[in-house]
Amino acid sequence: MNVAQLIGRKRDGAELSGDEIRAFLGGYTRGEIPDYQVSALLMAVFFRGMSDAELDAWTDAMIRSGVTLDLSALPGPKIDKHSTGGVGDKVSLPLAPIAAACGVRVPMISGRGLGHTGGTLDKLESIPGMDVKVDKARFLRVLDDTGLVFAGQTADICPADRKLYALRDVTGTVESIPLISSSIMSKKLAEGIDGLVLDIKVGSGAFMKDLERARLLARTMIRIGTGRGIKVKAVLTRMEQPLGLACGNGVETAEGIEVLHGRGPEDLREAVLHLTAWMLVLGGVRGDVEGAKALCLEKIRGGEALDRMRRVVAAQGGDARVVDDPGLLPAGKHRATLAAPESGWVARIDAFTIGMACIDLGAGRARAEDGVDPGAGMLLAAKVGARVEKGAPLATLMSGDGARLAPALARAAGAYAISPSPVAPEGSLIIEEL
Ligand code: URA
User: Fold this and answer.
1) How far apart are CA 184 and CA 290, in angstroms?
2) Of the listed 105, 116, 168, 201, which one is catalytic?
3) Per-residue pLDDT for 325 more than 90?
4) Which one, of 428, 128, 353, 417, lies nearest residue 250 by Cα?
5) Catalytic: 168?
6) Lowest-confidence pick of 162-166, 279-283, 297-301, 419-423
């Protein structure tokens, strides 16, 4: 295979064959094709898109870059959820233990922060000791013992996605429907699940800014999943302002745990309950979403969901005390308050800008090899529709590096619009379902 020619053909709009795609991704996973050539092909895909046949071959090659799991020996339905990425989206953290407590097994393979969005793995790693780099044997053991497992792409499972994901994050090639679809679906199909709930984020803080592209992304992933024999439900959810009040790894983990205690912001609780409920419906635990939500609430109230979280954190080497005392999670010691410039009503909190301000604070990566500051992030004091007085706090910014506060503060200020007259809260969180 001549890689330069292959890149040129894709750049010029030709359709790549399945063999070419397999050879390319195989070569990349084995370290035979350098990042600069892969980056060039990703950019060509970004602009040219992929045919259905290309996308199927690409997804298949990503799955085959590692092992696929056979979960048939484990009793019960195996159902997962994946979000296309947002700001303040910590839904997976409470969702997985609630679903497990309700009788669904959740073998969850997640990603790290991507672009301006946060990633479940970075959030989980803010728990001291928590190990998300689990190999196949440990993955199966934790899943068997606790009903859920939180893991990342590894040398075993979807290694091609692990490498591509990090490369896309720093080469401006994230917001591509075929690249997002194949990234998500390869991880999910490698898990050996029976069903998948997709949370397709729409709006400023999402990769899909408008409804039409979000629908196309949903349909693309549904086609890939159902074509391979799993049940897929897509829920389109609003991502114009951050979800909940916390943005950043440690504070989001704390807020996610709050939901397991029956607390937490209303929009976050709604998203968690709705998406978990669909997992139960896909798994046949309940026949309808309302009945499934009632069961989730029962498991939260009874403490079973919290107990699952304690068990999975401990099983993955983490300090399970954080589950009962989320205050133990890291929160940056350098702080600054963003104050309302005038009295009025919060009319906009642009999620993309907040996500970028969190990266300024150290919560995300500028280069693939960068680490993240688990204590960096923001805590919002008011959401869209709230009344604020001049000088009152809109948000607290946190970082482990005091020098990062001023630029982040300036950026975060640009996320807000204050209206002199009352503002209706945003439309419903759940936009539509496919
Ligand atoms: N989540 C993923 O796992 N991959 C993407 O490309 C985007 C969101």
Assistant:
1) 27
2) 168
3) yes
4) 128
5) yes
6) 162-166
Beta strands in 195-318 (DSSP E): 195-202, 231-238, 246-247
User: Which of 174, 213, 217, 224 is the best mutation target for the ligand 1 pocket, counting ligand atoms within 8 Å of the beta carbon and taking the most?
Assistant: 174
Choose the catalytic residue: 10, 81, 187, 311: 187
Residue nearest to atom 3 of ligand 1 (CA): 184
CA dihedral of residues 4, 181, 354, 272 (deg, nearest 10): -160
At which residue do the structure tokens 């979800």 appear? 243
| pLDDT tens, position by position, 284-298 | 999 999 999 999 999
Task: Enter the tokens of residue 286.
Answer: 């309940």
217's tokens: 């992304």
Ligand 1 pocket member 42 (CB < 6 A): no
**Strand ranges, E, within 272-382:** 334-339, 344-349, 377-380
Neighbours of 383 (CB within 10 A): 18
Question: Full-prediction pTM beyond 0.90?
Answer: yes
371: pLDDT strictly greater than 90: no
162 is catalytic: no
Q: How far is CA 415 from CA 6, 128, 211, 397, 409, in A?
A: 42, 32, 22, 13, 10
| Per-residue tokens: 367 | 């280069």
Q: Which residue has the tokens 């390869």?
A: 186
| 206 touches ligand 1 (CB under 6 Å) | no
Residue 192: enclosing H or E segment and its boundaries? none
What are the residues facing 237 on neighbouring strands? 201, 430
> What single letter denotes the amino acid at residue 152?
G
Q: Per-residue pLDDT tens for 378-433?
A: 999 999 999 999 999 999 999 999 999 999 999 999 999 999 999 987 889 999 99
